[in-house]
Design brief:
Length: 403
C-alpha cells in the first residue's frame, strides 16, 4: 500500500451533529500532524453546511455540486429499477422474514449511489496515497464500493447505533461480506463493536470521542437552580421525556428552570421542535422551560447550572455528555444503546444513569442531585476528571496508528 499522505473524511452531512464535530476535530488534528486533509460530504449543498468546528486548512467538497447533471433517461431508468427493487424484491424478503442477500444489497446500493461511487472511485485512482475515513450511512458503503481493488486504505466508523443498521434490508448480509474490505474499523464503545459480525469486529479498535478544545475549567462552586441539555433537536434525543420529567420534578422544586440549547435540521428536526414546543405549552412550562438556539459559548453559559440531563433513546458517544462532564456538571443520562453513557459514567460515582424512557427514574435522579449538595459536589469532581483523558491530540494519535 502507498504511504498515507492525505486523509479524506467522507460523511453525508455537516449540519452541526456530534459525528460531524468528531470528524472535524480529528481532521484539524491530522492537519497539525502534517497530513493533507479533505472532507467530502455526500449529501450537502451550499447553504446546508455548518462548518463551526472544521478548520479553514481542510478542504471541503460537496459531492452533489460536483456530480454532472443526470439525463432524463437515466432518471427514469434507475428510478424504475429502484421502485421495482423496493416494491418487489425487498417486500418479498420481508414477507419471508429473511435478510436481503449481500450481492442483491450491493446491486441496490450501486443503483442508488452509482454516480457518487463512480466519482469517488475516479478521485481515489488519482490519489493512491489518500486514506479514507467513512462516517455514517450512506458514506460507508459508498466509500467501500468506490475503493474496491484500489490501494487506498479505508477505515469505517458508524457513529450512531449499529443495531438499527443490522435490521435494515441491506444490513447484516451486506456488512458480513463487504465491510471486510475495510482495512480497519473504529467503534465508539465495546458494545457497539460487539454488534458486528465477529470477522468485522476483529478489524476494529474502540476509540472514544475527543473533547472539544478550549472548554472552560471545571466549576466547583455554588450552583444555580437550572437544568440544562444541549444537542441537535431530533427524535432520537427524546427531549419530550426530559420535558415530562422536568415538569414532575418542578412540582417539588418550583424554583428550577430548564434550558434546551440546540438547532433543528431538516423536516424531521423541525417537526420534533414544533412538537416539543407544543408539549412545553401543554405542561404549562412556558415561563420555566426555554428552547434556545445553540451557541458556541454554551459551555461558559451553563457552567454554574445545577445539572445536565441527557434523555436520548439511542446514542453513540454523546459529545455533549462528555463536555458537560469535563466542565464539572453533575450529569443524569439515560443508559441507552449502544453503551456510550455507560462507557463514560460509573453510576453514582461520576454521574447517574437512568433506564431509557423512564421519566420517574429521571425525576428521582434529578431530585437526588438537587437535594444532596454532597452528592452533587462529588459527581462534579469525579466527572471533571474526564477532561484529562480525552484530549483531541490523544484521541487523534490512536487514529493515526490505524493508518
Amino acid at each position: 500500500m502507498s504511504e498515507t499522505k492525505k486523509i479524506l473524511l467522507v460523511m453525508p452531512h455537516m449540519i452541526g451533529g456530534g459525528a460531524e464535530r468528531v470528524g472535524s476535530l480529528l481532521m484539524n488534528a491530522f492537519d497539525k500532524r502534517g497530513y493533507s486533509t479533505e472532507v467530502l460530504l455526500t449529501s450537502d449543498r451550499q447553504g446546508d453546511v455548518v462548518r463551526c468546528d472544521l478548520g479553514d486548512e481542510t478542504a471541503l467538497t460537496l459531492l452533489p455540486e460536483e456530480l454532472p447533471a443526470e439525463s432524463a433517461g437515466d432518471k427514469i431508468k434507475y428510478g424504475v429499477l429502484l421502485k421495482l427493487w423496493a416494491q418487489v424484491f425487498c417486500n418479498l424478503f420481508e414477507l419471508l422474514r429473511r435478510p436481503v442477500p449481500a450481492d442483491l444489497a450491493k446491486a441496490s446500493l450501486f443503483v442508488q449511489y452509482r454516480r457518487e461511487i463512480a466519482w469517488l472511485r475516479a478521485k481515489l485512482k488519482k490519489e493512491p496515497e489518500t486514506a479514507v475515513i467513512a462516517f455514517l450511512q450512506p458514506a460507508i458503503p459508498i466509500a467501500l464500493l468506490a475503493a474496491r481493488g484500489l490501494p487506498n486504505r479505508v477505515i469505517f466508523s458508524e457513529r450512531g447505533n449499529p443495531e438499527r443498521l443490522m435490521k435494515k434490508r441491506y444490513g447484516r448480509k451486506f456488512i458480513e461480506k463487504y465491510y471486510l474490505r475495510a482495512d480497519a474499523a473504529v467503534f465508539q464503545t465495546g458494545a457497539a463493536r460487539d454488534v458486528y459480525p465477529a470477522a468485522v469486529a476483529a478489524k476494529g479498535a474502540v476509540i472514544p470521542n475527543p473533547l472539544k478544545p478550549g472548554l472552560p475549567e471545571p466549576y466547583a462552586g455554588p450552583r444555580e437552580d437550572r437544568v440544562v441539555t444541549f444537542c441537535r433537536i431530533s427524535a432520537d434525543k427524546n427531549l419530550p421525556l426530559l420535558v415530562e420529567a422536568f415538569a414532575r420534578f418542578r412540582e417539588t422544586h418550583p424554583t428550577y428552570t430548564l434550558r434546551i440549547f440546540g438547532d433543528a435540521a431538516g423536516d424531521d428536526g423541525k417537526k420534533t421542535e414544533r412538537e416539543l414546543r407544543d408539549l412545553i405549552r401543554a405542561r404549562g412550562l412556558e415561563h420555566a422551560a426555554a428552547m434556545l438556539p445553540f451557541r458556541p459559548d454554551v459551555h461558559n453559559e451553563i457552567l454554574r447550572d445545577a445539572m445536565y440531563v441527557n434523555s436520548s433513546d439511542t446514542e453513540g458517544m454523546s459529545n455533549a455528555m462528555l463536555e458537560a462532564m469535563a466542565i464539572g456538571l453533575p450529569c443524569v443520562c439515560t443508559d441507552c444503546p449502544v453503551g456510550g453513557a455507560r462507557a463514560a459514567i460509573r453510576d453514582g460515582e461520576n454521574g447517574l444513569l437512568t433506564p431509557v424512557g423512564d421519566a420517574d427514574a429521571m425525576v428521582r435522579a434529578m431530585t437526588r442531585i438537587a437535594d444532596d449538595p454532597e452528592l452533587s459536589g462529588r459527581l462534579s469532581a469525579e466527572a471533571a476528571k474526564m477532561s484529562g483523558r480525552l484530549s483531541t491530540d490523544a484521541v487523534a494519535e490512536q487514529w493515526v496508528k490505524l493508518f
